[in-house]
Design a protein that fits this description.
single chain; alpha/beta; 9-stranded mixed sheet; 5-stranded mixed sheet; 28% helix
Length: 339
């Protein structure tokens, strides 16, 4: 297994994201907290509510979050009041949540905390910056269900992706799904200096068509939903890129495939891999038929954490699960439960 503490020391911020509930995000976080104790000062926040005793949806027990003295926490006011540790309030932000304003405090003793951070990515970015400013070496964001956008390089510098047996009771299906989602998050970024020269301009567009001479046309669309006809109509023989400043979904790709062949030999550009919401069959069909998708920025995925046990009462062989995934991706894979 990678030395996770030495790896995350390279960065100022880290997100822990997952593809489903109960895939082990909080357990992965607790593993890092345990290994970091005495070695590095961590800052913590969350984009959802975490650290509570029971899952509010499944009504099953959840692992609580145990922090060390010296950690710096950003959480909602009501969670601050419930934390059973001695604390020093460092800052009250202007970020509001249903559980109160986000308060940043320093832990003066070890103990359990509940995290309820900002709901927007911009708020998360701001809080991470404040955590760093107030003394933490690494700000860690514990992600909520399917909120992979935290992994965007514009939000956090590095990411750990969590997957697990809860996805299906067939290990082959879970391995296949995990590998595909890692592939999408880690999708290749574009290497085009001329494109980057105009990127600040096209970044203001929702959908933009760019030709081989790097002339671009803003389609003035608010969303890609139900807009495939407008996009296809504007594709020319010399079109090089279709820049989508938003998400790419199954319905959008399927509509392109059904329309005609004008999308072939052209590249769909997204900001990063968190903007791709495609099923494997749809993506594979699009690529086989001549489509292409790349990103402007590449997510810095530093590890994949696996949970071999499902809350539905079954589990996989941990070593087989880990080996099956690791053999098919280039990113370090680990099982913190076994560790």
């Amino acid at each position: 297994m990678i030395n996770i503490i030495e790896e995350i020391k390279k960065y100022k911020s880290l997100s822990i994201v997952g593809n489903y509930k109960n895939v082990g995000k909080t357990t992965t976080l607790n593993y890092i907290l345990d290994k970091a104790k005495g070695n590095i000062t961590l800052g913590l926040t969350s984009i959802g509510v975490d650290g509570e005793k029971e899952d509010t949806v499944t009504k099953t027990p959840k692992p609580r979050i145990y922090i060390s003295k010296g950690s710096i926490i950003a959480t909602a006011k009501s969670c601050v009041l419930k934390s059973d540790i001695t604390k020093e309030i460092l800052e009250a932000t202007d970020i509001h949540t249903p559980l109160g304003k986000i308060i940043i405090f320093k832990a003066l003793s070890d103990g359990y905390v509940e995290l309820a951070g900002p709901s927007r990515n911009s708020g998360i970015k701001y809080v991470c910056d404040r955590l760093n400013y107030l003394g933490c070496e690494i700000a860690i964001v514990d992600g909520a269900l399917s909120r992979k956008t935290l992994a965007s390089p514009s939000i956090t510098e590095a990411t750990i992706f969590c997957s697990g047996a809860v996805l299906a009771n067939n290990i082959d299906k879970v391995v296949e799904q995990t590998i595909f989602e890692v592939e999408m998050m880690n999708i290749e970024n574009i290497n085009d200096d001329k494109l980057m020269e105009i990127y600040e301009e096209i970044n203001e567009c929702k959908v933009c068509i760019i030709d081989e001479a790097y002339n671009y046309k803003n389609l003035n669309l608010k969303t890609t939903l139900n807009s495939h006809e407008d996009i296809v109509e504007n594709l020319e023989e010399n079109t090089k890129y279709i820049f989508i400043n938003g998400i790419v979904t199954n319905s959008f790709i399927e509509s392109l495939i059904k329309s005609n062949d004008k999308y072939k030999n052209k590249t769909i550009l997204v900001k990063d891999g968190t903007k791709i919401f495609l099923d494997k069959l749809v993506y594979s069909k699009f690529i086989v038929l001549g489509g292409n998708i790349k990103s402007i920025d590449k997510i810095n995925l530093i590890g994949v954490s696996l949970n071999p046990t499902s809350i539905n009462g079954y589990s996989f062989d941990s070593e087989i699960f880990e080996k099956s995934v690791s053999e098919n991706i280039s990113i370090p894979v680990f099982d913190v439960y076994r560790e």
